[in-house]
TrEMBL record:
Organism: Cyphellophora attinorum
Record's protein name: Zinc-type alcohol dehydrogenase-like protein
GO molecular function: oxidoreductase activity
Top-rank taxon, per record: Eukaryota
UniProt-listed PANTHER family: PTHR45033, ZINC-TYPE ALCOHOL DEHYDROGENASE-LIKE PROTEIN C1773.06C (PTHR45033:SF2)
Entry-linked Gene3D superfamilies: Medium-chain alcohol dehydrogenases, catalytic domain, NAD(P)-binding Rossmann-like Domain
Stored SUPFAM superfamilies: GroES-like (SSF50129), NAD(P)-binding Rossmann-fold domains (SSF51735)
Enoyl reductase (ER) domain boundaries: 56-388
Amino acid sequence: MPVEILEKIFDEILPSRAMIEIGPSRRDSLGPSGLCLNWSQSQGWRVPELMLVSKSFREAVRLQHSTPIPALGPNDCLIRVQAVSLNYRDIATPLGLYPGAGKDGIVPTSDGAGTIVAVGDDVSEFQAGDRVCNTFFLDYQDGIPTAESRAGSLGVRNDGPLRQYAVFPTTALVSAPKHLNARQASTLPCAALTAWNALMGLGGCRLQAGQSILTQGTGGVSLFAIQFALALGATVIATTSSDTKADRLRALGVKHIINYRTDPNWGETARKLSPNGLGVQHVLEVGGEATMAQSFKAAALGGCIDIIGFLAKKDGEPSKVSFWDAFTGLNVVRGIGVGNRKQFGEMNKFMEEKGIAPIVDERVFGFGEAREAYEYLKKQEFFGKVVIDVAKE
Ligand SMILES: NC(=O)c1ccc[n+]([C@@H]2O[C@H](COP(=O)([O-])OP(=O)(O)OC[C@H]3O[C@@H](n4cnc5c(N)ncnc54)[C@H](OP(=O)(O)O)[C@@H]3O)[C@@H](O)[C@H]2O)c1
C-alpha cells in the first residue's frame, strides 16, 4: 500500500490517540517515513480463564487496555471494528453451558462489522475504506463443514471481534450489505446466516412462497427466520412467552402466534393453524431436546426440522423422540452449523434485493458497557439483536 494512503489512514481514519504496529511483514514496505508505531491505546474484552464457569459476567469478561495488534500477514485486513452483536452462545460460554472447550484469554463474540483500514500485500478483494462483516468461521468458504473449518469459529477458541481493532484474513470477511449501517450489519454473521442456512441451505428443502414455517421464541435466529420467510412469501407461525413480543411479531406480519408457556402442546396447535392443518415445511428448532417432540408434531410430511439450539435445556426433561417420529413423518432432521461464506454472500444479496433490515433492540450498549450487554441478553427481555456500538462511549 502506498505510503500516502497509510498516512491518510493514520491522519483521518484512526483516532488520534491510537498508534499502530503493522507487524514485521509490513515494516519493510513502509519505508523510512516512520509510520510504524507502537500500538498503545487499543482496547479489547477478553475471557480470562479457560472454560470459565461463572455466575457473573464481571468475572467472565474483562476489559484489557493497550492490546497489541497482531502482525498483518499478506492475506489479512486490519479492521476498525464499529459494532458487535451478541448471541446466546456468548453468554452460554462463560456460564459453562456451551459444549466444547474454550481457550484462555481469547477475545469473545463472533459477530462484528467495521471498516478496513489497511490490507496485506496480497489482498486484492478488499481495500481500505471497505465496509465489512467478519464471518463466524475463519475459513469456511463453501460446501459442508469440515473439522478444520469448524475449528476456526470465533469467540471460543479464536479471537472474536469485541475489540477496537481486529485483524482477519480475507477468508473471514464479506462486504457488508450496502443498505445497512454498522450496527445492523454486525448482527449478520451468526444468527442471520444460521436462519438463512436453515431455510435455504439444503437443496430440495429450500423454503418457497406459499409454504409455512414454525419459529420458537423471539431470539436472534428466530427473528431472522421470520423476516426471511415473510420476504419469500411464506406463512409464519411463531411462539413466544411474552404478550408484548407477540404484538411486535404481529406487526411484522406473523400470522399465528402461540404462547409456549401457556400452551405446552404448541407443536400440535401450530399444526392445526398451518395451511389445511397439514403441518409446516420448516421448524427452526432452537429449544433443543426439550422441544423436539412438539417440533415433530408441527412438521408436515417430509418437513424439515432444523436442529439449531438448546435454549430450553433448563426447562425440563429431554422429550421422547425416536427413529419412528422421523420415519413416519418422512422428515428431514438437519443439524445446522451457522453457514459458509458463500451463503453469507447470497444472504446479503437477498437482503439488499428485499430491503431487509435486521431488527436491533432499542437499547444499544457502548464499548465500555459490554458486561451490561451480556446481562441484558441473559434476561431475555430484548426484542431484536443486542448490539455493542464499539465507537460509542
Ligand atoms: N447451530 C447453530 O449454527 C446456531 C447458530 C446460532 C444460534 N444457535 C443456538 O440457537 C439458540 C438460539 O440462539 P439465539 O442467539 O437466537 O438466542 P437468543 O437471541 O438469546 O434467544 C432468546 C430468546 O429465546 C426464546 N426462548 C428461551 N427459552 C425458550 C424455550 N424454552 N422455548 C422457545 N423459545 C425460548 C425467548 O423468546 P421469548 O422471549 O419470545 O419467549 C428468548 O427471548 C441458542 O441455543 C444458540 O446457541 C445455534
